[in-house]
């Protein structure tokens, strides 16, 4: 049967929109790289940038071979917990998925490993990155995707199997950010803090990143990419809502971009003033992390909440981040990028926030294309009952448990095999000179370290003799 020209044009526009969104999400890898590079000390800049490259290239292979299949594979043996078809993109494209959809989901997958890399920065053997990045992007993360985003997943809002609702995690506060944050939590916890991060009395010693310019650049690149991350998760832009003359996914996409911006901006501003009260000075780096915390939190409910609710989301996300940063210092937990607190803590808050503030009309628009007569649970504080908030809590607990029982043993095994942490001498000298042949910059005189790999090896030889 010949496809009409109207259908062809509609499909083409939707594909262009999805591909453009995938490109925006991929730009976030550059944002992560710049943010991470600026947030570590200069002697580790080359290492952290290389790990971001590794996250992308290793994640590409693992997601192609296994990840997409575990996430979206259906077929006759489909089940609510794991996909069983489409390995190495066999039988793609089909009536459900095409190459553009794979590319969009791949861009999400490689972002997860980047989150975890930040938690274990400045003290991890490079080989360990290869192992956990492949496992996380190819197995651990895709299973969670299947639960929530696959049409037959046990947490999916499309199947309505859990509490008559399913969890609403539209763009991944839980699926992406909480997964990466919990994985980073275990990696950082098993490794322990960096050398010199806490003194003999347990008090924290500041180890600020070496380049605020890169941090700000990375933050704005991530902000730019988030317009593909959140609005792009609609997948299609030309979907009209019935019983209206001027509303469709295009209006939902615009609203989602607005809620994303408002949540991030509110969180950045709140963090700026909150840290001013606590630390006594204005800190650009804190404001940048607060901004990202707001984006992480709104990612779950960005499409189903009013703009005013996004401001509430961002305000609370900022205090979640500030509070967790204070707590981690008291517990002597060291995460150089604050990834556990930012992505894990704010991601968890984002799931709860959605269960409280999701608007009935928007939920039906997003998940039922505005179909009349549909009844779905929505935000508890808006009168929607306990169904949705119950699903959000279940998703939160399920993700924490799943990532803990998978990534925890991986990091523990790497540690026991002495494949996880570098030696004290290598850490003091810096990973760039000890593992990568030289520094990212020609010189940085503020740190008294060997300038070339040969100098480092000569020092190591004298120490061993």
From TrEMBL:
<keyword id="KW-0924">Ammonia transport</keyword>
<feature type="domain" description="Ammonium transporter AmtB-like">
    <location>
        <begin position="18"/>
        <end position="441"/>
    </location>
</feature>
<feature type="transmembrane region" description="Helical">
    <location>
        <begin position="49"/>
        <end position="72"/>
    </location>
</feature>
<dbReference type="InterPro" id="IPR018047">
    <property type="entry name" value="Ammonium_transpt_CS"/>
</dbReference>
<dbReference type="InterPro" id="IPR001905">
    <property type="entry name" value="Ammonium_transpt"/>
</dbReference>
<feature type="transmembrane region" description="Helical">
    <location>
        <begin position="16"/>
        <end position="37"/>
    </location>
</feature>
<dbReference type="GO" id="GO:0097272">
    <property type="term" value="P:ammonium homeostasis"/>
</dbReference>
<keyword id="KW-1133">Transmembrane helix</keyword>
<keyword id="KW-0472">Membrane</keyword>
<protein>
    <recommendedName>
        <fullName>Ammonium transporter</fullName>
    </recommendedName>
</protein>
<feature type="transmembrane region" description="Helical">
    <location>
        <begin position="211"/>
        <end position="229"/>
    </location>
</feature>
<feature type="transmembrane region" description="Helical">
    <location>
        <begin position="103"/>
        <end position="121"/>
    </location>
</feature>
<feature type="transmembrane region" description="Helical">
    <location>
        <begin position="386"/>
        <end position="414"/>
    </location>
</feature>
<keyword id="KW-0813">Transport</keyword>
<dbReference type="GO" id="GO:0005886">
    <property type="term" value="C:plasma membrane"/>
</dbReference>
<comment type="similarity">
    <text>Belongs to the ammonia transporter channel (TC 1.A.11.2) family.</text>
</comment>
<keyword id="KW-0812">Transmembrane</keyword>
<dbReference type="InterPro" id="IPR029020">
    <property type="entry name" value="Ammonium/urea_transptr"/>
</dbReference>
<dbReference type="GO" id="GO:0008519">
    <property type="term" value="F:ammonium channel activity"/>
</dbReference>
<feature type="transmembrane region" description="Helical">
    <location>
        <begin position="170"/>
        <end position="190"/>
    </location>
</feature>
<feature type="transmembrane region" description="Helical">
    <location>
        <begin position="308"/>
        <end position="327"/>
    </location>
</feature>
<dbReference type="Pfam" id="PF00909">
    <property type="entry name" value="Ammonium_transp"/>
</dbReference>
<feature type="transmembrane region" description="Helical">
    <location>
        <begin position="339"/>
        <end position="358"/>
    </location>
</feature>
<dbReference type="InterPro" id="IPR024041">
    <property type="entry name" value="NH4_transpt_AmtB-like_dom"/>
</dbReference>
<feature type="transmembrane region" description="Helical">
    <location>
        <begin position="128"/>
        <end position="150"/>
    </location>
</feature>
